[in-house]
Amino acid sequence: MIRCTVALLLLLCLANIVQAEERTFSRFSVDLSEGWDGEETTNFLNGNTEGYMLVLGKKDDEGENFLAQVSVFLLPALPGTAEAVARQMASMQDNASTPQKDGNFWTFSGEPHTEAFKATAVTKVAATAKNILVIISQDPHGLGADAIVASLRGITPEAKEALSGNRQQKD
């Protein structure tokens, strides 16, 4: 009886696992669960194409509003350390926590001042000599943003370097 119960529970857990599909963009690849999509751009910093933005999100049934979102920015190096950039970003949010070192990242949570998607965000900031990586995750309903962030892999040398130290890269 106990074996049947354990087997049934295991089967139910496995049935709830949502299969993710790998999507490859120009600088990153990521495993996207059902309903998630992504869009990238390089021309958002006043015509400077060195900046890169990847927005991954899950929208409502009408496809109009985000239910969860992960924004990834790979930018030219900024003055200061990753910690200084994280502290500056935190100071511009409501109810922000103090940035803490978390592996390769400086991480904090807060409420960004944005009209696009209003939800508490977890922001991760890492820096290399050439680039700064900012990952902003907003998932008020627990729709899988943490798994999306965890699956993020660098494609270009700059993206790989910016993510290094956080986890092993799949090649």
Characterization of the model:
- The chain has about 170 residues and is α+β, with helices and mostly antiparallel strands.
- It has a single domain, classed as Protein Transport Mog1p, Chain A, CATH 3.40.1000.
- About 20% of the residues lie in helices and about 35% in strands.
- The chain has 4 helices and 10 strands; from the N terminus they run αβββββαββββαβα.
- The protein has helices at about 1-15, 80-90, 145-150, 155-165; strands at about 20-25, 30, 35-40, 50-60, 65-75, 100, 105-110, 120-125, 130-140, 155.
- It has a 7-stranded antiparallel sheet, with helices on both faces.
- The radius of gyration is 18 Å and the shape is globular.
- The termini are far apart.
- Residues about 5-15 and about 165-170 have low confidence and may be disordered.
Task: Describe what is shown at a glance.
The protein has helices at 2-15, 82-91, 145-151, 157-163; strands at 21-24, 28-32, 36-41, 52-59, 66-76, 100-102, 105-110, 121-127, 131-138, 153-154. It is of the alpha+beta class and 171 residues long.
What attributes does this structure have?
single chain; 171 residues; 7-stranded antiparallel sheet; disordered C terminus; Protein Transport Mog1p, Chain A; alpha+beta; 3-stranded antiparallel sheet; 22% helix
